[in-house]
Amino acid sequence: MNFNQQRARYAGIALVILGVVAVFNLWWLVPAALLATGGLVIYRRQWAIGRRGEAVQALLWGVGLAVLLLADFIFPGVLILGGASLLLRGHEAAADDRLQAVVARFRRRRTPAVNAPTNAPLTRLPVEEAAERPATNETVRL
Questions:
Q1: From CA 33, how far away is CA 120, in angstroms rounded?
Q2: For the segment 46-90, what is each residue's pLDDT rounded down to a tens digit?
């Protein structure tokens, strides 16, 4: 996918989301969604350049502020979030490893099995027997 197609896809998704927000009058969700999205974007950017500590802190503050805004728990919540941020200092790599493990676990649950088992067992002839059989161009049904 080239860059223009990707931008067009993102613009289309944004327009659909904006339409849903307008139809259902969900304007109060927009600031929280922007905060959470900003935290996620900064996390991915910082993680990609190897700054895991800054990435985890950005995700914590972005998603944390979004949740506090939705819960209408701003002032005491910011104090709790600040304390959690200070407690997390120096342990960002371990927290990120745990976060990556949780995300991987959810991805494994969502992906369907590629080779789903069937009710009928498949039987194969040994190689020697298959080589001894003459080629008759007949279709063999299992």
A1: 49
A2: 999 999 999 999 999 999 999 999 999 988 999 999 999 999 999
Taking the whole predicted model, whether its pTM rises above 0.85 is answered as no
What is the rounded distance in angstroms from the CA atom of residue 58 to the CA atom of residue 55? Answer: 5
Q: Provide φ and ψ at 102, rounded to 5°.
A: -65, -45
Tokens of 97: 């490893």
Q: Which two tokens stand for residue 135?
A: 């080629």
- 122 dihedral zone (left: phi>0; alpha: psi -120 to 50; beta): beta
Percent helix, strand and coil across the chain, each to the nearest 5 = 75, 0, 25
Buried b (16+ CB within 10 A) or exposed e, 50-78: eebbbbbbbbbbbbbbbebbeeeeeeebe
